[in-house]
Each structure stands twice: as structure tokens, then as C-alpha cells.
């Protein structure tokens, strides 16, 4: 059942199962709505008093007597009976209602005739006084309830160090649930109060106000559930448990995060090897890794993408730093829950320092496959022999041939699992020899690797084929 206010008269008609199927008159249905609202707030008040009494008994402080619950329930019954009787006494006969329509809004007569039911109440000073009294009563009830809530929290805070943590949490959750219920109920009752104010002061846009208030009131159930999911701990835990693994946050750009902690990849002393020299400072890398983990990243990569840029110089220190940064991340991840680490394997382009990861032209050379094989084999040997990382991500590969070589290397490391990301444009990629794409596809069918797409602009002279 849904009551629909009618303006400019103080009138209502109802739609729904009770009115359409069972023919229950609008005045009775209006009683049901108002009475249910009164019952809801009364039981919430009783629940608060019971919770206050429980907390007060634990802290040996002043509490409401048990018979106060009965007094409140008796007051509810009397209020419902007297309120319904009072409204019923103001009800006009059907003849008087039609007379009022013809006198005040004769141009709405046809509209009223089309309604399956309606109820009109006379707009008198007596009604205004009744609304004033009702508003004052609501304020007089709400004010002490606020003090009850505040006093309950105060007593709970005093008990925090005196009772078991699980008991404290149970009482705190109960209070939070009640507060959410009261808050949502209060927000849903606000449009009814707004409607009453419109009636008292003859608001010029009363029809629009009534439509807005009606829409507002109808959101109560949805808003109540959303609020419980947001603020009630058991519901939050339920959602977290059943959505675990559905959405996982990954880390972002390593160079950008390094810059946040004072390391500039574009500085002259760092530019040949970009982000990799940062691994010489384990304190810096701990800050960077922790920044991702503290933000909730569940998937994080090692700062090893640019390791290949050091291989042409045969720097022993680079291999040592490679091992240190990987082991650092592995140890840090143990302090967090559900973290997956992927070892970052940069494309062969990092070996040449020329941004050729956007073109893949380095695979044009006659010995490209051998160079790529040795490159990837060197990196995977370090990962397997000197770290505990067994998940890898091959990043920004621009060439189908290079990906094929990487798969050949992976076949020699059966412990490793890998994700591939490519710098394709519109799902196209560079290939060098006839049959390379077919070979890559065949390998993919027999492997357990995953592939990610990354749209980048290739070099204008690159040869492309649809992927």
C-alpha cells in the first residue's frame, strides 16, 4: 500500500494490494502507515533502553527500571488508539468531501472521479494545532533518546578496559546497529514532517513538495540496507568475505611512486637505467613497496623491469641489488594478508636504452632471437635461483617474435607462471617472419600463461598485423 497526497486539498488516495484487491479505504490505510511508524520508533526506543540497561548493569551505574519498557508499550497503545480516534473524528462524509471538491477545486472534479479511492480532511485551525502538538511531542521524545545514546557510548568507553574484547565488540555493534536504524528511520520520517509543514503554512509549491516527499519516503528500505552494509560490522564482514577475490587492487607506476620519495628516474645519474638504481637503497625501496601495500594493493611487482639495461655493462652489483629488492618485497608481503608478488621482467628493449619497446625494431637483427633467449634466460635464472618469486609478468612486449622466444625460455623453468603484457595498437602487433603469429598462437594453446593488452602507439614504420 502506498498513500499519495493530493494538493491543494488535504487529501490522499492509495494504491497497492490492500486498496486495489481488498478495497480497504484510504483512511484505514493511512492509519496503518502512521501506526507502523509509531511502532517502529517505539521498539527502537525500547531497544536502546534495553541496551543502556545492559551496559549500565556491567558498569554498576544508574539504569532505567525494567518496568519502563511496559510503560512505553502501554503509551504506544494509548497513543495509537487516541490518535486514530481523533483523526477519525475529523473525517468528512463522502457527500461533504464532494462538496469540498466542488467549492475549492471545481476544475479537479473529473480528476477525483477517476480515482478508485480518496479521502479528504478539512483544513482547520484544529488540524494545525494537532500538527504542532505532534511535532512538539516528537521533539520531546527525540531529545532524551539522544542523551540515552550518548550515555550508552560513555558507559561503553568506560567498560572497554574492564570486559573481554569480544563482549565489548558485541555491545558496540548492537549500539551501532540501533543508531543506524534510528538515523534511517529519522531520514524517512523527515519528508512526512516536511509535508506537515507544507500543510500548516500553505506552501505555494505543495504539489511538488508532496511528490518529492513521497519519493523520499519510499527510499527508506533501500537506504536502511545501504547504511547497514556501510556501518554495521557483521554486514561489512559478510560483504568482504563474499567479495574476496572479486576485485583486487594492483600497484601503479614504479617511477611515479619513486618520485614521491625523492628518486627521479629522469635525473642524469639515473636515466641510463631508469628505476633500477633505486634498488641500491633498500630503505627507499621499503618505503615505496610499503606505500603500495598500505594503500591496499593485493598484487605488487618487483622493481626489476629495467634490470636488463644493466646487462650490457656486466655490473655484478646490479645482480646483487636484483636479489635484495626481490627478497625485501617477499619479506614485506608477509606482514600483510593476501598479497601476490609478480617478478617484473622488462622487454629486451631495455637492453638498448632507446625506447624501442614502442617499436620492436631490435628484433630485426639476424641474431635477435639468440640475444632475446639469453636475455630472458639470464633474468629467469636469477628469479629461480636467488629468490622465492615464482610468478612473473613480462611487460610491454611489442613483438610477436620476442614473445615466442620468451615462451621458449619459460618452458625451461616449469616452476614459473607468467603474465604477458604487450604494447599493441588496436590489438595489432609487430611481426618479423612469416608464421610467427601462428607459432605464437600454437604455443599459447599449450601453455598456461595469461596475456594482457596495452594500447600504445607503435613506430610509424612498424609492420603490423591484426592480432
From TrEMBL:
GO terms for molecular function: metal ion binding; methyltransferase activity. Pathway: Amino-acid biosynthesis; L-methionine biosynthesis via de novo pathway. The chain crosses the membrane at residues 28-49, 70-88, 131-153, 174-201, 221-239. Residues 236-467 form the Hcy-binding domain. Keywords: Membrane, Metal-binding, Methyltransferase, Transferase, Transmembrane, Transmembrane helix, Zinc. PROSITE patterns: HCY. Pfam families: 7TM_GPCR_Sri, S-methyl_trans. InterPro entries: 7TM_GPCR_serpentine_rcpt_Sri, HCY_dom, HCY_dom_sf, Hcy_S-methyltransferase. GO terms for biological process: methylation. This is Hcy-binding domain-containing protein.
Amino acid at each position: 500500500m502506498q498513500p499519495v497526497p493530493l494538493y491543494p486539498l488535504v487529501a490522499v488516495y492509495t494504491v497497492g494490494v490492500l486498496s486495489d484487491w481488498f478495497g480497504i479505504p484510504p483512511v484505514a490505510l493511512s492509519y496503518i502507515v502512521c501506526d507502523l511508524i509509531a511502532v517502529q520508533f517505539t521498539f527502537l526506543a525500547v531497544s536502546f533502553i534495553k541496551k543502556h540497561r545492559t551496559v549500565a548493569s556491567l558498569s554498576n551505574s544508574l539504569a532505567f527500571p525494567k518496568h519502563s519498557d511496559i510503560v512505553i508499550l502501554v503509551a504506544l497503545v494509548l497513543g495509537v488508539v487516541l490518535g486514530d480516534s481523533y483523526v477519525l473524528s475529523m473525517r468528512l462524509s463522502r457527500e461533504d468531501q464532494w462538496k469540498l471538491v466542488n467549492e475549492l477545486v471545481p476544475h479537479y472534479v473529473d480528476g477525483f472521479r477517476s480515482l478508485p479511492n480518496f479521502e479528504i480532511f478539512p483544513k482547520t485551525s484544529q488540524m494545525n494545532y494537532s500538527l504542532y502538538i505532534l511535532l512538539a511531542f516528537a521533539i520531546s521524545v527525540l531529545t532524551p533518546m539522544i542523551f540515552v545514546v550518548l550515555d550508552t557510548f560513555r558507559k561503553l568507553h568506560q567498560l572497554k578496559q574492564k570486559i573481554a574484547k569480544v563482549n565489548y565488540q558485541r555491545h558496540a555493534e548492537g549500539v551501532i546497529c540501533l543508531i543506524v536504524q534510528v538515523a534511517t528511520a529519522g531520514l524517512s520520517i523527515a519528508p512526512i514532517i516536511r509535508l506537515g509543514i507544507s500543510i500548516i503554512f500553505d506552501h505555494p509549491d505543495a504539489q511538488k513538495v508532496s511528490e518529492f516527499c513521497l519519493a523520499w519516503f519510499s527510499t527508506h528500505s533501500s537506504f536502511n540496507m545501504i547504511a547497514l552494509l556501510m556501518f554495521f560490522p557483521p554486514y561489512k564482514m559478510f560483504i568482504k568475505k563474499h567479495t574476496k577475490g572479486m576485485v583486487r587492487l594492483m600497484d601503479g607506476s614504479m617511477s611515479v611512486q619513486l618520485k614521491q620519495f625523492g628518486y627521479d628516474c629522469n635525473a642524469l645519474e639515473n636515466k641510463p637505467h631508469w628505476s633500477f638504481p633505486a634498488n641500491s637503497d633498500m630503505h627507499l625501496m621499503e618505503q615505496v613497496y610499503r606505500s603500495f601495500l598500505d594503500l591496499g594493493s593485493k598484487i605488487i611487482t618487483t622493481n626489476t623491469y629495467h634490470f636488463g639495461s644493466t646487462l650490457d655493462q656486466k655490473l655484478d652489483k646490479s645482480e646483487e641489488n636484483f636479489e635484495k629488492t626481490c627478497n625485501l618485497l617477499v619479506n614485506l608481503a608477509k606482514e600483510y594478508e593476501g598479497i601476490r608478488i609478480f617478478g617484473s621482467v622488462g622487454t629486451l628493449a631495455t637492453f638498448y636504452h632507446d625506447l624501442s619497446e614502442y617499436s620492436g625494431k631490435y628484433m630485426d637483427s639476424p641474431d635477435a632471437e639468440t640475444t632475446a633467449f639469453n636475455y630472458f634466460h639470464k633474468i629467469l635464472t636469477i628469479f629461480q635461483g636467488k629468490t622465492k618469486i615464482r610468478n612473473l609478468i613480462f611487460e610491454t612486449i611489442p613483438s610477436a617474435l620476442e614473445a615466442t622466444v620468451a615462451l621458449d625460455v619459460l618452458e625451461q623453468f616449469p616452476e614459473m607462471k607468467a603474465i604477458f603484457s604487450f604494447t599493441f595498437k588496436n590489438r595489432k602487433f609487430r611481426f618479423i617472419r612469416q608464421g610467427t603469429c601462428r607459432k605464437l598462437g600454437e604455443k599459447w594453446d599449450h601453455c598456461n600463461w595469461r596475456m594482457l593488452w596495452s594500447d600504445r602507439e607503435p613506430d610509424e614504420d612498424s609492420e603490423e598485423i591484426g592480432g
